[in-house]
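In keeping with the milestone schedule agreed at the kick-off meeting, the structural modelling team has produced records for the first pair of proteins. Each record is given below as a sequence line and a structure-token line. The laboratory manager (R.T.) confirmed that both were archived under the project's standard naming scheme.
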Amino acid sequence: MWPWMRFDRAGQSELFECEKSAIVRRASIPARDLRILGPVFSHSSNILARDKAMVVNLEFIKAIVTAEEVLILDPLRQEVLPFVDQLRQQLVPKSASKTQEGGPSDAVDNEMHVPAGRRWLPVPEAAEGLQCELPFEFQVLEIALEIVCTDLDNNVAKLERDAYPILDELARNVSTKNLEHVRSLKSNLTRLLARVQKVRDEIEHLLDDNEDMAQLYLSRKWIQSQQSEALLGAGASNSISPAVPPLRRISSNRSGSVVTSNYTADNDVEDLEMLLEAYFMQLDGTRNKILSVREYIDDTEDYVNIQLDNQRNELIQLQLILTIASFAIAMETLIAGCFGMNIPCPLYDINGIFGIFVGSSGAGCFLLFLLVLGYARWKKLLGS
């Protein structure tokens, strides 16, 4: 049993539990679509169009949207609660305002009809503001995108607040603790970039295919289905009535004018395209922020590597100087060892020769040290 919350067009909500099969029958979707909403695809992003529903899997928001209602999976999760609250704020005031203003004249004024033979076909409330209001399914999609984009923006802002002080501290002091912080920071950045990229790619995929966007107009397809049923019913009840041409316009009793229906224009996806482009640009900006942080990390790592290379070079120079000094001392030791042998030598008979000999050999070895050191500097093996 999965927990679900249902919101209809009027803003009425209901919390219930049911099996997968019941949801499949209710939303008329394939059973495999429910696997996308399962825990295996918890961090994937998909917006799938079906005949009578739209399957939305954006980060933590998992919902099934039809032309008349939205079913939200696991609505009591902490991350999903803002989405539920936003739906209440968006949908409830509209139904409440219609109830307060409702009267006999308003009810007729708020409901637009299309003649179909000798019958009148009611159009849902979402068609009331054709030019200024999105269909119900796109209102839900917009709220879902807004919540997801806001959550990603907040995570990126937190990442930026944590990243720059850690990287500056690493640039000042290269230590195991600071390196561990940077490693954790890079892991979080990689995961966050992947999340943003998935949502961005899904929106980009929809923007690249007008047919997929047209399939997301559930209210349009619902109205076309109702029109077809009404025409078939009118033809069956009165076979001698003249054929009604395809309906292309919806008359508004309120304005007294005739407006072109966005629901009947099959190739008109401008509203959805503008909606998706707005959030695509927002996600692109979020992605650029993450890339800026990653670039700053790369720059800091390059700076740290330069520091480490400089320290390594200083150690090599110190090792070279010590090697030259060891060579000079070894030469003096060689001379002392030669004269320490028990072999007769005329110098042994000269009084006071010991001090002169030791001083001369020490000075010669020191001069040898300076000569080798100068040669190393001349070859630029040592810094100046």
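The second protein of the pair:
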Amino acid sequence: MIPHKTKHGAAALARLKAYEGIPPPYDKIKRMVIPDALKMIPHKTKHGAAALARLKAYEGIPPPYDKIKRMVIPDALKALRLQKGHKYCLLGKLSSEVGWNHYDTIKELEKKRKERAHVTYERKK
């Protein structure tokens, strides 16, 4: 999927062009997620501020959560939610094009985590 073909990808590339010649504004992906969530959550209300305070953003799966059994929410699956032909973009891929430098590192760490999880699963069998 080419991010600049989507609405959000075009906005990200416009932000990138605004920062040409100077260092990119984001060094961590969570610093991109929080401001975007701030725009979507009614943060000036009491319940919106509480929701924003509960919001946590991580790169990959952090250590306390990688040992917890993960659940699949069927209503949130991409295959069920997105209609055929609708455009989408991945946050990590989009961030790497805007200036985030750790996309490949996270993919490598996720691969190692899956290998460890597979070994653990086979041991439990």
